[in-house]
User: Fold this.
Amino acid sequence: MLISISQAVIALTGFVAALLLMYGLKRMSSPATAASGIRVAGIGMLGAVVAAFLYGVRVEPAAQPHLWTNLGLAIVAMAVGGSIAWWSGKTVKMTAMPQMVAIYNGMGGGAAAAIAAVELFGGRANGTIQLIVTLFGAVIGALSLSGSLIAWAKLDGILNAPLQFRGQQWLNVVIVAVAFAIGAAIVVSVAGGPSLLALPVLISLLFLCAIVFGIMLTLPIGGADMPVVISIYNAATGIAVGLEGYVLQNPALMIAGMVVGTAGSLLTLLMARAMNRSVFNVLFKHFGAAKGQKPSTITGEEKPVQASDAAIDMRYAKSVIIVPGYGLAVSQGQQKLYDFVKLLVAAGVSVKFAIHPVAGRMPGQMDVLLAEAGVPYDMIVQMADINDQFATTDVALVIGANDVVNPAARTDKTSPIYGMPILNVDQAKKAYVVKRGQGKGYSGVVNGLFYAPDTFMVYGDAAAVLGQMIEAVKGLGAAAA
Amino acid sequence: MTVNVFAGAYIFMLAAFAGWVIIGNVPAILHTPLMSGSNFVHGIVVVGGLFVLLNATSVLEQSIGFVAVLLGAGNVAGGYAVTVRMLAMFTSSTPVPAHHAKRRRAIHHAKKA
Assistant:
């Protein structure tokens, strides 16, 4: 009786969880309902996780003697893993959000790989098809774990330079081939066929291959491609979870995992398309090493100006378009930026924010940052809707963005970013660029915009520069009064 | 519950289609929160981790199962915390519904064109 009730509760909460997770995601895909979407999904998840402890009511006979130990371990693991992640998720700075998503995603991949490991080492797979599904889930989960960790380390600045060497692609091909060979050897070995190595050794080698592959795949990727990479691993973890869900005969895991698998894949395609690159290109055709010199086609010099002069110029402009980039996120200058914009608007200037699809290190990161500062939606305009307006705009203010405003993407066929759609800042009547120093962008490409006759550079930390701009405009008001 | 190979294939096929449709019309403004939200959704892997850990019969299985639950719980809790924080920002701007509707229509038309 107790057994059948607990089975029914688990099945029902799983069903409700699958429903609410999908419905929650649907609500999250529209700004007006998004905030409630995560709560809907959270309720479904909570029910399924609590009900999962009812698995303890009927465990396999062999596991019966260990039940209380296992329950204790489960509670400790839930409490430790959950509270550490909860605390870090609550306290992390907004700029660090992308790498946090990467690390939580890696944890999901690791969990899927660990489930697969138990199934494989315990010889629990039921038939060849289940075994093959387990193996695929194991490999995808493990490479998502190691790849996400590398992505985290890169975004966090622990790993800096992209690691590239000759024959890298071939090495990756070899690793994949070896992984397939080991997988096949495991299938043969489990089916009772001959085997060169003991089964546990083969299984360990397979995980090793997957982990190394995840590292090798991610290490050479740099530039603006990191968001796409995180999205790929997000989809990969979803697929791994779905596959392990099939192995565990749990439809809720299958549905939630596969929904994320395709949703993440679609998101990846959308992002790659925004950069006019294919996903294949992102993964295997890396930006070249940074070239130090200014190409001969670029003439002129960078012209520095004072923040206060730039501010006063904008105060008397009719229209200003602001292009925020990662530099704004790093300096946490979004609040100061909006304060400055409010001063401009009060003075009758028409101000808009232009968002490039891959500005920052994650798609939509700039939207989130500006929303945090309280900027209303109607001031934030996406690239496709605003690019025609630069030509009729008095001033374009670029803050901490570089590659997404580099005209070389339009004109220079030899440039690694050639073909990427850019914001037409160079068409504005005048441009101010706020930048920490004379460095190159994340992709390492020299930006001709900075040398253009109508472009003026304001060097300094974005937040500090914006502070000076606010003072300058306020001082103007005080002087007039 | 048992799911045979073909029932499994149907579930995967329909779930894959659902994921595709759900994300289809999302505005770029929600890309980051949505990635974070879908990251939370695959945290349901912790349920599988609990199943495996509760059925563990050896120290090896207990250790790996423990890791599975630990990581899965981190995925769920961290994914939820970060997503709520991101989405909370979207409620703070006051005149959401009116131009939201306008914006969405504009995006929709732009896509069609």
Summary: Chain B touches chain A through 95 residues (CB under 8 Å). Residues 33 and 84 of chain B are 9 Å apart (CA to CA). The two ends of chain B are 48 Å apart (CA to CA). Chain B has five helices and no strands.
